[in-house]
Design goal:
This protein is mainly alpha-helical and about 400 residues long. Among the domains are: about 45 residues; about 100 residues, Receptor-associated Protein. It has 15 helices and 3 strands. It has a 3-stranded antiparallel β-sheet with strand order 2-1-3. Strand 1 and strand 2 form a beta hairpin. The protein is globular.
Length: about 400
């Protein structure tokens, strides 16, 4: 725990100062919010930490901004005053600049949804439409609370996916590093043993040739891989056709396909449930929820289903064509359609899918780890065995 000093405002708008114990600044801010204090400055008592440039605004920052707005609006603070309080926060220049821009737009009389729409990289269509409905119906506090919960889930979902892949990636890195070390340092040291031998076994020739090739061209290999990684990174939101095809191929790999379907099912049903709860019609809700789906193939099927619904086709018949809805979930939709209340059905499907996703990621990780360890053992062990056989062949020639 560390001691932080803070300056902020209470619900009455009065400035308050003090000190609080917390693990870090984020926790200190959360603890202050629980005390109904919105902090505009938090710093360690011993002095400020060193900053190495301002970080980008990420989903965690948008979640935090959304939850703070929900709390302020729920306690009667006007949206312009709430944005003004948040714009005074220090510590994240880019988030502060974003909030200040929103405040200026609102002060000019622009609807909040239009102000948010100036930042499509941070606020998607689902977010904007829910805010627009909240403004029209006077339910912005509830809408922001729902959006904060949805953003929290998305962040946790991303963390689970990254967490499931972290250990396998470490194993893969160790495997590659071990092979590179052998070909760059071990094999060259042994190559002198084979000088003067007229005939060498084919596996020894292959080992020496591979080592020589790696030493000559590995720089180009790594440069090419780095260029590919940079190209993927720089493609950003406007993904070119080649990146879309690459992502689609990766998503269809055995083992990953089931996780992709579960993830998109959660995204779609959560978005649809939020839309219906906000009072949006079913055809609009399905269309907007489909826009929340990342996988292009699945999204296209859902958009086609939405077109069919607009033409008068039954909801269950249209959605049953999507991989997101097996027979069990189609049956649940039929029950909801007959009762005229689909919101709890979408909520139930999303909830069940979250449980399935947790189980699937656990199984996937448990299966992938030993497979990668086996792969590493075969590759590294194979190279070591070839080295040993090569050394033994030289000794045989000596005798």
């Amino acid at each position: 725990m560390a001691l932080f000093s803070y300056r902020g405002y209470d619900l009455s708008g009065n400035e308050v100062k003090g000190e609080i114990d917390a693990k870090d600044k984020a926790l200190a801010s959360t603890l202050l919010l629980e005390q109904q204090i919105t902090a505009v400055e938090i710093k360690p008592v011993a002095g400020e930490g060193i900053s190495f440039g301002s970080k980008k605004v990420n989903i965690e920052d948008i979640e935090f901004l959304t939850s703070e707005l929900a709390m302020l609006l729920a306690n009667g603070v006007r949206i312009d005053r709430g944005l003004g309080i948040l714009a005074k926060k220090k510590g994240h220049p880019k988030l502060t600049a974003l909030t200040q821009s929103l405040l200026e737009s609102v002060k000019r009389g622009e609807p909040l949804a239009d102000a948010l729409g100036q930042f499509p990289e941070h606020f998607d269509e689902l977010y904007l439409n829910l805010v627009r409905v909240g403004e029209a119906s006077g339910t912005l506090p509830t809408v922001f609370d729902q959006l904060a919960a949805d953003l929290k889930f998305r962040r946790q979902l991303n963390q689970k996916v990254k967490g499931a892949l972290t250990y396998p990636m470490v194993i893969l890195f160790v495997c590659v590093a071990s092979v590179m070390f052998i070909f760059n340092f071990v094999v060259p040291q042994l190559s002198g043993m084979f000088d003067g031998n007229a005939e060498l076994p084919s596996y020894t020739v292959a080992l020496l040739s591979t080592s020589e090739w790696m030493q000559q061209y590995q720089g180009f290999l790594f440069a090419g891989l780095a260029a590919i990684a940079i190209a993927i990174k720089m493609s950003g939101q406007n993904k070119p056709q080649w990146r879309l095809k690459l992502e689609q191929r990766i998503a269809n790999l055995p083992g990953l396909r089931a996780l992709v379907v579960l993830t998109e099912r959660i995204r779609f049903n959560t978005a649809a449930q939020m839309m219906l709860r906000a009072g949006i019609s079913i055809d609009q809700a399905i269309g907007l929820a489909a826009g929340n789906v990342k996988n292009r193939e699945i999204r296209q099927v859902l958009l086609s289903a939405n077109d069919a619904i607009k033409k008068g086709h039954p909801l269950t018949e249209s959605l049953s064509k999507s991989v997101l809805y097996p027979d069990l979930y189609v049956s649940l939709l039929e029950v909801g359609a007959e009762s005229g209340d689909l919101e709890p059905v979408f909520k139930e499907i999303a909830s069940r899918s979250r449980e399935e996703f947790d189980t699937a990621t656990t199984r996937f990780t448990a299966l992938l780890e030993p497979l990668l360890i086996l792969f590493m053992s075969v590759i590294v062990g194979g190279v070591v065995i070839v080295m040993m056989l090569s050394i033994m062949s030289v000794n045989d020639v000596g005798f």
